[in-house]
Specification:
Layout (H helix, E strand, L loop, with lengths): L7 H11 L12 H11 L4 H10 L33 H17 L8 E12 L2 E10 L5 E10 L7 E4 L6 H4 L5 E5 L11 H4 L7 H12 L4 E2 L1 H8 L3 H13 L12 E2 L9
Parallel strand pairs: 4-5
Antiparallel strand pairs: 1-2, 2-3, 3-5, 6-7
Helix pairs in contact: 8-9
């Protein structure tokens, strides 16, 4: 199914409008007739139209859907069986996630591979520094995401706030000792707009795909000189200086026995 913002929400709005439109046919009487009414009377949403044409989905018979005054029990499977042990929870958790994607968010692709990090710009300011990079990820590194990181001067680690705009609210965060991490994922600057073409078999819409792309921003949690070399395509000496600078800035920790350094800015799962 398509996400709530493009699918269910449109149908819900149609039901609300039907109260004031006597000519509105009931969806359970003739789903195709109801779909024709929606197209003629509701605002045009090209993405929803494309999804509907691709899937052939028709408005459901809402009268036949089960109703409940309370939230579903998270410890009951859809077939009514109970989750009787911790070992059964992962299966129930996946069932909840599948339902959530089916009815609300749309289907997500697997976690993408971060192919390379391309430096764009570095600036020193009064009390902080700003770095802009371009992340290249996904199939063949064709998906890109611009990220701006602003760090307060002085020793770290610095707590970080991630926001979907390149400025990252740094004017509010830097004076309070926070790192500001912003990425291009909003209505005015959306680097995720090309993802549907790269992942045509998945139907995640605007807001869900921006949330999905955040994991790329948070993806790398360990740093090493060889890793910086590989990702930035630079020489060893330059990579070593960069890692030393990141340690001095509080971005990464000291060298560990395994040759890696822990990234101190909060992020996602470790590689």
């Amino acid at each position: 199914m398509i996400s709530l913002s493009h699918g269910r929400m449109l149908i819900i709005l149609a039901l609300g409008s039907s109260l004031a439109a006597a000519a509105n046919p009931a969806p359970d009487a003739d789903p195709q007739l109801y779909l024709d009414w929606m197209r003629a009377n509701l605002a045009d949403v090209p993405e929803w139209n494309a999804w509907q044409e691709q899937t052939g989905e028709l408005p459901p018979d809402f009268q036949s859907l089960p109703g409940s005054e309370f939230l579903p029990d998270p410890l009951l499977f859809r077939d009514g069986d109970a989750v009787d042990s911790p070992a059964e929870w992962p299966r129930r958790r996946q069932e909840i996630l599948d339902n959530y994607q089916h009815y609300l968010l749309g289907r997500f692709p697997p976690k993408p591979e971060l192919v390379r990090i391309v430096p764009i710009e570095f600036e020193n300011h009064s009390g902080y520094s700003t770095r802009q990079v371009r992340l290249e990820y996904g199939p063949g590194g064709q998906a890109t995401m611009r990220v701006e990181i602003s760090l307060p001067d002085g020793p770290g680690p610095h707590p970080a706030v991630i926001t979907p705009r390149l400025g990252g609210w740094k004017e509010h965060l830097i004076p309070r000792g926070y790192a500001a991490v912003g990425f291009a994922g909003n209505d005015f600057m959306d680097d995720t707009a090309g993802l549907p073409e790269l992942y045509p078999e998945y139907d995640f819409a605007k807001i869900p795909r921006r949330a999905w792309a955040v994991q790329v921003v948070m993806e790398t949690r360990k740093a090493s000189i060889s890793g910086v070399q590989r990702r930035l395509k630079i020489g060893y000496n330059r990579a070593a200086r960069m890692v030393e600078s990141m340690e001095a800035a509080g971005l990464v920790g000291p060298l560990q026995p395994n040759g890696s350094r822990e990234i101190l800015v909060p992020g996602g799962d470790e590689d």
